[in-house]
Amino acid sequence: MVAAGGRDAIVEARQASMKEMAAAAKTIAGIFDGKLAYDAAAFKAAAETIRARSGPALIAEFPSTTLGAPSGARLEIEQARPEFEALANHMGTLAEALAAKARQAPAGITGDMRMGSGLAMGGGSLLGKRPAAEADPAKLPVEHLLHLILQDCSSCHSKFRQKVQ
Ligand code: HEC
């Protein structure tokens, strides 16, 4: 494979992977917002899609030779690798917890899956200053895990993604 073709293939593959994560996140958000009917199998598949594409898999999608225009991946990824990888891995840990819960998903939505049901967890209120992500993710309700994951998407995009074209 020639260098240019290789770069394009990697960029295309990661953009496709990002889009799949976005669709999966939308599905889960839709389920909890009541816009989509709850379906344990769909929930499980969506959580697995996010899990499989975060953490080390996400990091591997950004080799240094593929950064910068015409890709949406900024050169800063290379200059701040530890921060980029920490974000990918933070999201990965949350996505692992989400997928583990989805594998055990009940036939119907239960109250303990809802945001707010874990308020006492982690030694502080979610409304407090201490980031709830420091709490054990396995103890957070599914809906809350999704919100934390979406925050990681945004944090990474605001620093490491650029508009191209
Ligand atoms: C650690 C950093 C990081 C995380 C976390 C991350 N992204 Fe991205 N995302 C990027 C970068 C960088 C790009 C630009 C990739 C490119 O164009 O080469 C991108 C691109 C995208 C795109 C545009 C793809 C396209 O077709 O151009 C979407 C959609 C997206 N991300 C969704 C998500 C969602 C949803 C999540 C969370 C579930 C997420 N991302 C988490 C770094 C991240």
TrEMBL record:
The lineage of its organism: Bacteria, Pseudomonadati, Pseudomonadota, Alphaproteobacteria, Hyphomicrobiales. InterPro entries: Cyt_c/b562, Cyt_c_II. It comes from Mesorhizobium helmanticense. SUPFAM superfamilies: Cytochromes. One of its GO terms (molecular function) is heme binding. One of its GO terms (biological process) is electron transport chain. This is Cytochrome C.
